[in-house]
Amino acid sequence: MEGKPIYYKNGFTACGDIDSVFIECGLRNDNIICEVEVLGDIDRDGDSSRVVTNKIKIIRELTVDDLLKFNTTRTLIKAIILDPSIITEDMLRHDDWGVRVTIAELGKNRHRNVLVNDTHFKVRVAVATYGTTKHRDILINDSNVYVRCYVARYGTNKHRNILLNDEHWMVRKYVAKYGTNKQRDILHDDKGCDVVEAARKYYK
Fold it and tell me: What is the pTM of this model?
């Protein structure tokens, strides 16, 4: 391309390490990750591994196997996003909860059968969101309020009938938002003002 490369303004961006690619571009998108060779002038921001150049050569597109070989958390998450069939039992025990959340979202129900008891609440929220009624039957009694909120959102009216009496106002607000008018009628007299407001707002 013409002109002098200017960081974040003009030029092709390349990264010196793989994790910087995902910091720059994110993980959950359709971006194609390629190995490149920088051939032109460069500009960089301090000690950042990211550079901008006015001439670049694309060598090849990286495959899922390539990503796995880097052996970082971000490359593993990206590999799972691209091909959930690579999920292994060992990945279910990965130290990073972001990996386990990704598996709960994109994996199979047999994976969620394990992750329904995960120690991190965000993983259990993902199971409540993407799992089955049986998973929500378990998570309806979860100690974490956000998990129960997502059971109220993605569960059945049977779940919401139970959560009508939840001790936390936020859960009852989710019932008001995602439940039935009959459930909203009950919540019109709730002791939580936010719950009452939601019951009135979402009445159909």
Answer: 0.90
